[in-house]
Amino acid sequence: MSLKERDSFVFYRSWYESYKQLKDNTEKLKYVEAIFKYALDQVEPEFNNPVLTLMWTLTKPNIDANIKKYKVGCEGAPHGKKGGRPITKKPHNNPTKTPNDNVKEKENKKDNDIDKRKAEFKKLLSKYQDIYVLDMIKDFFSYWTEHSPNDRKMRFEKQTSFAVGRRLKTWKENSKKNYSGKNYKPPVYGN
């Protein structure tokens, strides 16, 4: 589509604001007609009035920029004319590995990560061995470190807050199982 067949163009508010400042209706008509002729047919206007010349100097760059965009749109962007970049398959870092090996590696890493966090939780619970019976701590550990095979978090990690000492105390008080063998010493909080 050539520029001569162009049916529309952008008319900016700033042009209208300039137009409103003109007092004489013939000047207003010349200014608007110049915009139409230049935007649609590329006819360069000639003004005898310095005010109109100044206004045109500020208006023309906007029209030129829009014409340039229009031409690019009509011609089509050069990107993609040749069909785009060819698809290449990325080689694996290790040619002996298959994609399934990578999945297994991620699962093992996740399992190791959970095992590491379980060990840290167990270490945290070991501080309470003098206060609570070992069977109770084991049951507590088993319950709170439970996770499904696809879970990335254990049960205790899904809680918004988890104070081990308080949870153990509540566990002891709510337990239907009788944990006996050691004297129960209620923990002191605030340290």
Q: Could you give the topology of this structure?
A:
Blueprint: H1 13-21, H2 25-41, H3 50-75, H4 99-126, H5 134-144, H6 164-174
Major β-sheet, in short?
none
The global form is elongated
Q: Estimate the mean pLDDT confidence.
A: 79
The class by helix and strand makeup works out as mainly alpha
Tally of structural domains: 2
**Proportion of strand residues:** under 5%
Instruction: Report how far the terminal alpha carbons are from each other.
Output: 80 Å
The number of helical runs is 6
Helix and strand sequence:
HHHHHH
Q: Which radius of gyration do the C-alpha atoms yield?
A: 39 Å
Q: Please give the number of β-strands.
A: 0
Q: Name the poorly predicted regions.
A: none
Proportion of helical residues? 40-55%
Quick overview of this protein structure:
The chain has helices at residues 13-21, 25-41, 50-75, 99-126, 134-144, 164-174.
Polypeptide structure, described:
The chain has 191 residues and is mainly alpha-helical. The protein folds into two domains: 73 residues, no CATH class; 76 residues, no CATH class. It has six helices and no strands. Helix 2 runs parallel beside helix 3. It is elongated. The termini are far apart.
